[in-house]
Specification:
The complex is a heterodimer. Chain A is of the alpha+beta class. Chain A is built from 15 helices and 10 strands. In chain A, α3 packs antiparallel against α4 and α5 runs antiparallel to α6.
Chain lengths: 393, 204
């Protein structure tokens, strides 16, 4: 069955798992409500889960968020188009390079701005390096949630730090890169930078092999993740879930292939797909995507053309796109990351809206968690990959 | 075999543990206050103002108080007040200067947009990051005396970029001088030619 056909059934509310018991007899105790978070190390930020427990089983889970809300969209409507660019760094602070690109993509669509070839390649390099950063962080944190007490996380952070040092050498900041501009990129990498990046990418599969040897076959990990937090494809599509979480459920939907934005159509890479939609598949999806990213990076370094990095017609000051609206989206490391902009011809957007993949992937948390223990809920949350800066905006 | 995954994992951990003593790829930590990593050239922290002459920093600020950075700053952490009078700049042209120039570093988010929009190359990014203070109001608000740093300092922290900027400024200055020379010559020629062009008609 093609899950994209509109005739596909929409069993959105029929989640498997036990429901709240009405009977309280001497053999079953009362239900216990546990409020987990907002200050809890396993909730990846200021996120709260109100869990109702029957013994050890979860019978209800209410996600509560908004603790990190900082009015991002309204602020962006009162600043210039360029002025919003550094704010987009703060959305998903692990992947500022691809968030920058998504915003630049939307504004370029709105203004009809062309981007030179070298800048397109640089953007792909940055986006894929960001994917490596995000996914290596994610698998590290996932194992932290599984209770491995920091060792895998530190190995992952060691590799992440190398990429982030590259970002710092290029853009000036480790995480708040603010690198993309409308019509190109801000800084041209030097040949030394490119050589260092090439070497890092060459070494990356070795780290992945070591990491997989350490953890992928680990019996405890298999027992804790296989069959935990199942999500079926129909459910995931109906909830609008995107990114690795959707692909782990077996749906072949990757915007790099579907939209082929930038120059992705010229690159040779595969989209890994899961079969079960459980936490283990979501973990493997990240590992396989990192291997594909390395492939894309190798091709990009080989083909990177010389030339300008900025379109000569691009305007930095006094940027006023004509009235209209545009939606720019790309395959962020967490899913479909989109920016919707309405311009009324003034220097600031009339409406600015972010489609955050973290928030939308979080909506099915309860469906995935029901029937499992609270320790599994932590692992499932870790496998969804959220960043609260993006969820709450 | 059950347990082989765990043993494989422990081998990796043991390798990393041993490697953290001799393998440079695994020795990644730095004992911070004693040892420091070298900052990359492009590293940015907070902005500072460039002065041409270190002995008279307030008199030779490159900033002409055009207030573009104040307008473009996304978190609006820059405050500028124009001067009432004018002072000659490096090319000798009379320009305004900032009577008040302040940056609230507790608001600044180091985005570098002020540097990019400045048409006079007057504001650049600093590299100082050890800026902890005990007073969060006075010490974090930098006025123009604390922001002003000489051009030689800029060369020290961003050598490649500073050389490029200086080259461009020099070229602009030369072009301006050439233009002024040409204009002066034309003026002189016009002045010299004037009596020839309009000779009073000799009437006896």
């Amino acid at each position: 069955m093609n899950p994209f056909t509109p005739s596909a059934p929409a069993p959105f509310a029929s989640a498997p798992g036990p429901t709240v018991r009405a009977v309280h007899d001497e053999f079953h105790g009362d239900l216990l409500e546990v409020s987990m978070g907002p200050q809890h190390p396993s909730t990846h930020g200021v996120f709260r889960m109100v869990a109702t427990l029957d013994g050890e089983q979860l019978v209800k889970l209410k996600p509560v968020f908004g603790y990190l809300h900082r009015n991002h969209e309204k602020i962006a409507e009162n600043t210039t188009y360029l002025g919003s660019m550094p704010y987009t760094d703060r959305l998903d602070y692990l992947c500022s390079m691809s968030t920058n690109w998504a915003y630049a993509l939307a504004v370029e669509k709105l203004a009809g701005q062309a981007v030179p070839e070298r800048a397109q390649y640089l953007r792909i390099i940055m986006a894929e390096l960001t994917r490596l950063v995000n996914h290596s962080c994610l698998v590290g944190f996932l194992f932290n949630d599984l209770g491995t007490s920091f060792t895998p996380l530190l190995y992952a952070f060691r590799e992440r730090e190398k990429i982030i040092d590259l970002f710092e050498a290029l853009s000036g900041s480790r995480m708040m890169c603010n690198y993309q501009r409308f019509g190109g990129c801000r800084v041209d990498p030097t040949p030394e930078w490119l050589a260092a990046a090439q070497q890092l990418v060459d070494n990356f599969p070795r780290f992945l092999d070591e990491y997989e040897r350490m953890l992928t076959g680990n019996e405890i990990m298999l027992a804790r993740t296989q069959g935990v937090g199942r999500l079926d494809a129909t459910h995931a599509i109906n909830a609008g879930i995107t990114g690795p979480v959707l692909r782990a459920s077996g749906v072949d939907y990757d915007l790099r292939k579907v939209d082929a934005y930038g120059f992705y159509a010229q690159f040779d890479f595969r989209v890994p797909l899961g079969a079960h939609g459980d936490t283990y598949d979501r973990y493997m999806m990240r590992i396989l995507e990192m291997r594909e990213s390395v492939k894309i990076l190798q091709q990009a370094f080989k083909r990177l053309p010389a030339g300008p990095i900025m379109d000569p017609k691009a305007k930095l000051r006094g940027f006023r796109p004509k009235a209209g609206e545009a939606y720019g989206r790309l395959e962020g490391p967490k899913g479909e990351l989109g920016f919707f902009l309405i311009s009324d011809g003034s220097p600031n957007p009339y409406r600015y809206r972010v489609r955050p993949p973290s928030l939308i992937n979080l909506t099915l948390l309860e469906e995935m968690c029901l029937g499992h223990t609270i320790a599994d809920a932590v692992v499932i949350l870790g496998s969804i990959d959220i960043v609260l800066g993006e969820v709450d905006r | 075999m059950l347990g082989s995954g765990i043993i494989n994992g422990l081998i990796v951990t043991a390798k990393n543990f041993a490697g953290s003593y001799h393998d440079p790829e695994r020795m990644v930590t730095v004992e911070y206050p004693e040892q420091k990593t070298v900052l990359p050239e492009n590293y940015r922290n907070f902005p500072f103002l460039i002065t041409e002459n270190a002995t008279d920093p307030m008199g030779t600020l490159r900033c002409v108080a055009c207030q573009i950075c104040e307008k473009e700053c996304p978190p609006q952490c820059i405050i500028i007040e124009k001067s009432k009078d004018k002072k000659p700049d490096a090319t000798g042209k009379l320009q305004l200067y900032p009577a008040i120039f302040g940056i609230d570093t507790s608001v600044c988010m180091s985005c570098q947009i002020c540097v990019e929009v400045c048409p006079f190359d007057a504001i650049k990014m600093d590299k100082v990051f050890e800026i902890a203070t005990t007073d969060r109001f006075q010490d974090l608000f930098l006025d123009r005396e604390r922001l002003a740093k000489p051009n030689s300092y800029y060369h020290e922290i961003h050598p490649v970029e500073a050389a490029e900027v200086d080259g461009r400024l020099l070229a602009e200055r030369k072009a301006a001088e050439e233009k002024a020379k040409v204009a002066a010559a034309a003026k002189a020629a016009a002045a010299a030619a004037k009596p020839v062009v309009t000779p009073p008609p000799a009437t006896p």
